[in-house]
Amino acid sequence: MTMLRLSRRTLFNALFVSTLALAAGPATAAGFPEKPITIVVNWPAGGGQDTAARLIADWASKRAPVPIIVSNVTGAGGANGIRAAAEAEPDGYTLGIMGSSFVARGYLNENATPLEDIDPLVFFGPDPGALEVRADTGIKTVQDYIDKLKAEPGSIINGNDAPGGSSHIVASLFESAFDVEMTKVPYQGYAPTVAAIISGEVQSATLPVHQLADQHKAGDIIILAVAAEARHFLTPDVPTFKELGFDFVAGDWRALFLPNGVPSETKTYLEKLFMETMSDPAFVEAAQKVGFMVTPMPPAETKAWIVAHDAAVYPILLDADLVTTRKK
Amino acid sequence: MFDVFAAALIEIATRPDLLGLSLTGVMVGIILGALPGVSSTMALAILLPLSYAMPTDAAMVFLIGVFSSSVFGGSISAILINIPGTPGAIVTQFDGYPMAKSGRAGEALSYALLASTVGGLLGLAILSIVAPLIASAALQFRSPEFAMAAIFGLTMLAYASPGSTFRGILVGCIGLIVGMVGFDKLTDVARFDFGTRVLQNGIDIVPLTVGIFGFAEVLINLSSTNQPITHVARINRIFPPLASLPKLIAPMMRGSLIGTFVGAIPAAGSAIAVALAYAQEQRLSKEPETFGKGAPAGIVAPEASNNACVGGALVPMMTLGVPGDTMTAVLMGALLLHGLRPGPLLFAENPQMVGTIFGSLFFAILLTLVFGFVAIAAIIQFLKMPRHILMVGIATLCIFGSFAVRNTMSDVYIMIAFGAVGFVMNKLKLPTAPLAFGLVLGPLLEENLRRSLIISRGSWSVFIDRPISLVLILLSMAALLYPLVGLYRKNRREQTGREI
């Protein structure tokens, strides 16, 4: 009887230890990675986030011994995909990609993942916002635009995302920076907003540059200024707000992140893998063709970027009565 | 334009590598499209990295093959097992499945394939002839027009269930309410989620249709104990009777036109096109009571429509640089990766690429027709499987298909819940199709109605000031008043005792 119990316990212990060893195995061993790595995208296939992730996955696969694949977990305004990556096993085999809407989402939706629950990995690049107007509005400069709104608040109809989305935040930041008021009309993402400004349903937009670069060249749409530190490579003729004397920088950005608790060796491996991939000039060129700016940054700087973005956006959200949860 | 198109056709026809790629794309597209949950968009996104290494023209030939054929693929599962393979197939099953159930699966698939070909070719023809024209016309279709088109679609609900009009409207209203669950599209505030994550996702059209049609069917089969095991009759023919075809030309044409135009409207999508095409056909039909029971017109109109959408969706991409739907968004991504930026300058700066796109679509449509007929013969053998095994397989596909849409379990729970709803509705003899219509049209109406009113600063006159919107209102009123006219005439006839 004792023998049996003993052997049972031994067996149990053996099992327990081996399970532990198995569980800890891939994390501590130098053998990472041993199976495919997944990047979870929180928006549907075909969108900007998805294109960026697939590009990264494709180029990083060439440097990694295992395939890197993309999985779209969508819905709930992007909150599902973020949560799927944040709550994944912290073994380094699941990453997520986030954009600026992550920050706003955290204050709009109590079920969304807060910054504390994720571990920023590598910054991909900014997608600077810009101010675009239809050529037939007669508005030629940022100053014209501001003057028109000062004279008649709300007189310009601007197309943007629903509250919390990137181009809505850019529009709101613009209103607050210049103390003006536009009529903000929400659309479901960038493509419908582009259609709205081209068709004349709205007069201006706060979309990222690459969305309207061609229309700018064709002359139907004028990009008045870019809300970035430097001019955009697609539209070298368009000045930045800073050049025009306005201190206004805003827009979308993208970064890879891990769930909390990934072992540091694994994290270091992934950091190196993605930093090297994104620093490859051939990758930067491929990304530029699609309209992406690539400015990779390591984890600490990425986190600082997100914190800074949070600090800039929070008062705007609070002002617009959008903060429904996690009030500071 | 035609010389570039012709040059591209000759180029593809004389290069075995391009032809092979087109055929490969078509075969893969049909298979992926037929898998529930793998939409055309997903099929394209999955295969996109394969095209990185190809030259630009080869990549286009391959991807457009996948794009075009996956639309027909989606209809295969809709017809055979009552589960739409892609969102564009959500109404094909209304008549396709009943037809297949009565032992005419081969015919149903052939109707779908023929209509797909006609729709695809018409869409392509319109694309190649009047792309820039359509692009500007489609841009006239803005929020007020979307809202009124949705109203027009909803008036069709009155015709959607002959004999039980009020039940149809009741179910349609439930569909409208279901469409409000999840994030408000304009304010991003969660509604009707009762604090749960599952409902916060909203109710997607695919899990709902998979539930009320596919899973409910499994439940109904489970509940009827005296179901004969050898349910599926011999499949006698694949080709539909030739005599039935001339009558179907008009539905195919109307479906194609609706499809091309709706496809050309940025972000409208094929689900809306097929819903409108089906409702329209049912209203115009001389025998609307046959709809939902295997009416060929109920298959060919939406099938022509969703394939014409392909050509239509390419219009805004090639002329404006705006993707018409998510599929063309992936295609555009592929072009961008190859350093080609579609947009207002594409026709002027890169006519060869325009020709290649037209040529690729042409071959994709033709090869889908050829491969489709070969495949139909093989695919319908699948139905000879014993019913109980088939049901297990269908239940599995229902779960897989609803999960794969957004990779979340929430959609699986929603699918199962709507399976139960569909089962109960079947027992109560309530029509299920209006639920899907309500869910497609409700969010479209709400979003665009509210947005129109923001833009017009609260003035409702925006809907009658704009010509297209006004016409749609008049059409809706005509559709509502038409039965009254009929009633009036009937009364007069009874009173005077003679024909008017």
Low-confidence stretches of chain B: 229-233
Helix and strand content put the structural class of chain B at mainly alpha
Unreliable spans of chain A are 1-29
Tell me the series of helices and strands of chain B, N- to C-terminal: HHHHHHHHEEHHHHHHHHHHHHH
How many H/I helical runs of chain A?
11
Overall helicity of chain B: over 70%
Q: So how many helices of chain B?
A: 21
Order of helices and strands of chain A: HEHEHEHEEHEHEHEHEEHHH
Termini separation of chain B comes to: 53 Å
The biggest beta sheet of chain A is recorded as:
5 strands, mixed
Major beta sheet, strand line-up of chain A = 2-1-3-10-4
CATH topology-level fold name of the largest domain in chain A: D-Maltodextrin-Binding Protein, domain 2
The outline of chain A comes out as: globular
Number of domains of chain A: 2
Rg of chain B, rounded, reads 22 Å
The greatest inter-chain interface is formed by: A-B, 54 and 55 residues
- Strand content of chain B is under 5%
Strand order of the largest sheet of chain B: 1-2
Rg value of chain A? 23 Å
Number of β-strand runs of chain B: 2
Tell me the major beta sheet of chain B.
Answer: 2 strands, antiparallel
Could you give a short description of this structure?
The complex is a heterodimer of chains A (328) and B (500). Chain A has 328 residues and is an alpha/beta fold.
Describe the model:
The complex is a heterodimer of chains A (328) and B (500). With 328 residues, chain A is α/β, with parallel strands linked by helices. Chain A has two domains: 37-127 and 252-319, Bordetella uptake gene, domain 1 (D-Maltodextrin-Binding Protein, domain 2, 3-Layer(aba) Sandwich), CATH 3.40.190; 130-226, D-Maltodextrin-Binding Protein, domain 2, CATH 3.40.190. Chain A has helices at residues 2-28, 48-61, 79-86, 101-108, 142-151, 166-178, 190-199, 209-218, 264-279, 281-290, 299-319, and strands spanning 37-41, 68-72, 94-99, 118-128, 130-134, 157-161, 183-187, 204-205, 221-226, 251-259. In chain A, the strands form two sheets. In chain A, strands 2-1-3-10-4 form a five-stranded mixed beta sheet, sandwiched between helices. Chain A has a five-stranded mixed beta sheet with strand order 7-6-8-5-9, with helices on both faces. In chain A, helix 2 (48-61) links the parallel strand 1 and strand 2. Residues 1-29 of chain A have low confidence and may be disordered. Chain B is mainly α. Chain B folds into two domains: 2-454, no CATH class; 462-500. Chain B has 21 helices and two strands. In chain B, a hairpin with a 6-residue loop joins strand 1 (182-183) and strand 2. Residues 229-233 of chain B have low confidence and may be disordered.
